[in-house]
Design a protein that fits this description.
Keywords: ATP-binding, DNA-binding, Helicase, Hydrolase, Nucleotide-binding. Pfam families: UvrD-helicase. ATP binds at residues 45-52. With 660 residues, this protein is an alpha/beta fold. The protein has 4 domains: 3-114 and 225-297, Rossmann fold (3-Layer(aba) Sandwich); 134-208, no CATH class; 305-399 and 548-659, 3-Layer(aba) Sandwich (Rossmann fold); 403-527, no CATH class. Helix content is 43%, strand content 13%. It contains 28 helices and 19 strands. Strand 16 (583-584) and strand 17 (586-587) form a beta hairpin. Helix 3 runs parallel beside helix 4 and helix 9 (147-159) crosses helix 10. The longest helix has 19 residues, at 494-512. The radius of gyration is 26 Å and the shape is globular.
Length: 660
């Protein structure tokens, strides 16, 4: 059955029902139209539009009327945000529980591909799926070679400016795993032969990198094309969230399994094409959005109209009628969106000037909900004097760029504990801290007991809990360590770590895989060594200062300014945001002055070179709820009459300007 046969038409009564159930704000016509739609559709939703909440509301309506016990709704994204929103908004309701179980399916695109396509193909070949995890796969490849073979191969690759870790399968011919790869080494060389041996061993023992699941999935669809039609029958309604972030190999699989032109499957894709800030090198098989079936949601609950008007010119795909800010300032005057002009050769006072503005214009309770300074470039590499300021690190020397990477892994377990405790101190929930401790525990298991690999999931804590299901004693020990590591008031000292904590964590890792710490590999020893807490600006703050956070104080007032990259903050909400001038081929803010000034030339279709910069600025500008700031070099303002004219134009565009 298709969607029209599985549920009755969605009515205004359904919309009112879900509005009351989820305590939603009054819904305008575009949002109501989205909730009532029952056909293939692309939804272009602006930042702060409540997109994920709206997706969950639609799922609730669909689940309310769902007639089949064997066909379900498939919800796919890059994160588990939809599942978490269902648990948060609907977890206690019957509808929420219904959505979270069979026949419905909610997962990441990787998870769906691995479960329904890659794993069946491997089983058909008699290969066990051991792990879909980059680190475990690298380790399996290393173990296939003798130490000197691996060292020689790695050195040869590095001399050709290639990372051994970048090797990926492009074929399911595991006897010839380098087929399809363009390398500088001939098939007769030891380097080529060893690379083949390493990759073949890992694949045949069931170890695969995350992105290699798409190669396996494609093999199944070629060999068994009826699998795609079976999945369409199983899931006649598919909803893909954060569509703008999908890469070619993901869309390639989705378009083969759920082609949008198939009348028997309803494919709803939701995202914001103006936030496509991750590199897309090739055109997608089914580009998003499809202009023939697109709906816009252009109003944001996050910010007011003053921020919306400033950000709107940076929408690379123009928004019909312009970006609309719905947040009201209440009785207070809105905080002034401010350009901080600094000397070209000195950024030392930029964060202090920002801190002063925050204390002057934002109440303390608003400031504590998160104020940020973010840059398009955050790592300081290949620095030259003319690039200054090149990166976020120039504004605050202790800044650690690695912490903001999605792939960030602490060098030691104890470093992970220090960082996790700061997450707990910083955030409203302990989720990030718990996830980091669980990730460190799984890393310890991999290093200590490499033969007892645990199949990695997208969420480490969930993986540990599932692996311990039915083992009440070990579950209690795991949760006891979480509580001690994250919440002990005095923290963990080196003496405690060396005397008991390191050994206790090794015992827990051993219990996790039914082993004994006496059998642990030597590789684990270095990972369990003590590390001091990462540097913070104020070492006298009893370790309470937050990682990558600059503390500004004046009199009795203070504010913690968190530093990050624009990429890392995509999808997040700030109370206030300062976008820092940085350098990549040219200075970022300076390059975008025509759009800041609202020049008519900027209204024309920008070229591809400006596309990424515009999207980065758009993402950065649409983070804050209360105040937006820019840090700009003095030379960008010009001199004499040109400077006077530029300042006037910027003020007319809605900016206040201060000089330091």
């Amino acid at each position: 059955m298709n969607l029209a046969q599985l549920i009755d038409p969605i009515t205004d009564g359904d919309v009112e029902w879900v509005t009351k159930l989820m305590k939603l704000e009054a819904l305008d016509e575009p949002r109501r139209s989205f909730l009532k739609s029952m056909s293939t559709l692309d939804v272009s939703a602006c930042p702060g539009s409540g997109k994920t909440t709206l997706v969950v509301a639609k799922l609730a309506i669909l689940a309310r009327h769902w007639k089949s016990r064997t066909q379900g709704i498939c919800v796919l994204s890059h994160t588990n945000a939809a599942r978490e929103e269902i648990e948060h908004r609907l977890g206690g309701s019957e509808i929420g529980q219904r959505l979270l179980r069979y026949p419905h399916y909610i997962d990441t695109i990787h998870g769906f591909t691995g479960r329904f396509l890659a794993s069946p193909w491997l089983r058909s070949q008699g290969i066990p799926l051991t792990a879909i995890d980059d680190e475990l796969t690298y380790a399996a490849r290393r173990k296939a070679l003798k130490p000197w073979e691996y060292a020689g191969m790695k050195k040869a690759f590095e001399s050709a400016f290639i990372k051994v870790e970048s090797l990926r399968l492009r074929t399911v011919d595991f006897d010839n795993p380098l087929t399809g790869l363009s390398l500088k080494f001939g098939a007769h060389t030891d380097t080529y032969k060893n690379a083949c041996k390493a990759m073949a061993h890992a694949a045949k023992t069931g170890h695969f990198c995350f992105d290699e699941v798409f190669v396996l999935a494609d093999a199944l669809l070629v060999k068994e094309p009826e699998v795609a039609s079976a999945l369409r029958s199983r899931f006649p309604c598919v909803l893909v969230d954060e569509m703008q972030d999908t890469r070619y190999e993901q869309v390639n699989i989705l378009s083969k399994v759920f082609p949008r032109q198939d009348p028997d499957v309803c494919v709803i894709r939701v995202g914001d094409p103006n936030q496509e800030i991750f590199d897309v090198k090739v055109e997608l098989p089914e580009p998003f959005p499809d202009q023939s079936s697109t709906m816009e949601i252009a109003s944001s609950f996050r910010f007011n109209q003053s921020i919306a008007s400033i950000a709107n010119p940076f929408a690379y795909l123009p928004i019909t009628g312009g970006l609309v800010g719905l947040r009201q300032s209440g009785a207070n005057q809105p905080a002034p969106n401010t350009i901080i002009v600094f000397p070209d050769d000195d950024v030392s006072n930029v964060l202090d000037a920002y801190g002063q503005l925050l204390i002057q214009h934002l109440p303390a309770d608003v400031r504590t909900s998160g104020v940020y300074a973010i840059g398009a470039v955050h790592r300081l590499e290949n620095d030259k004097p003319e690039h200054y300021p090149k990166a976020v690190e120039h504004y605050w020397a202790p800044y650690q760029s690695e912490v903001n990477k999605p792939s960030f892994k602490p060098r030691t377990f104890s470093e992970g504990v220090h960082i996790a405790r700061r997450y707990v101190a910083r955030d409203a929930t302990a989720a990030l801290g718990v996830e980091l401790i669980a990730s460190c525990l799984l890393t310890l298991v991999r290093l200590a007991f490499p033969r007892d690999a645990i199949v990695a999931r997208s969420r480490s804590h969930q993986c540990v809990e599932q692996h311990l299901a039915g083992r009440a004693g070990v579950v209690a020990a795991y949760r006891g360590w979480l509580e001690r590591l994250l919440f002990s008031p005095a923290g963990i000292t080196q003496a405690e770590w060396d005397a008991a904590v390191a050994s206790g964590l090794m015992d827990l890792a051993a219990d996790l895989v039914f082993s004994d710490q006496l059998l642990a590999a030597a590789d684990a020893k270095a990972y369990l060594a003590w590390s001091t807490a990462p540097l913070v600006e104020d070492p006298g703050d009893n370790g309470g200062a937050l990682l990558n956070t600059y503390r500004f104080e004046t009199g009795s007032e203070n504010v913690n300014i968190r530093l990050s990259s624009i990429h890392a903050e995509k999808g997040k909400t700030h109370a206030a945001t300062l976008i820092l001038e940085t350098y990549n081929r040219t200075h970022f803010v300076n390059k975008l002055l025509p759009w800041l000034e609202g020049k008519t030339s900027a209204a024309k279709r920008p070229n591809e070179a400006a596309k990424k910069s515009m999207m980065l600025m758009y993402v950065g500008m649409t983070r804050p709820t209360h105040m937006l700031c820019l840090a700009m070099r003095k030379s960008s303002m010009g001199e004499g009459k040109a400077e006077i004219k530029r300042r006037t134009v910027l003020q007319q565009a809605g900016w206040a300007i201060i000089d330091i």
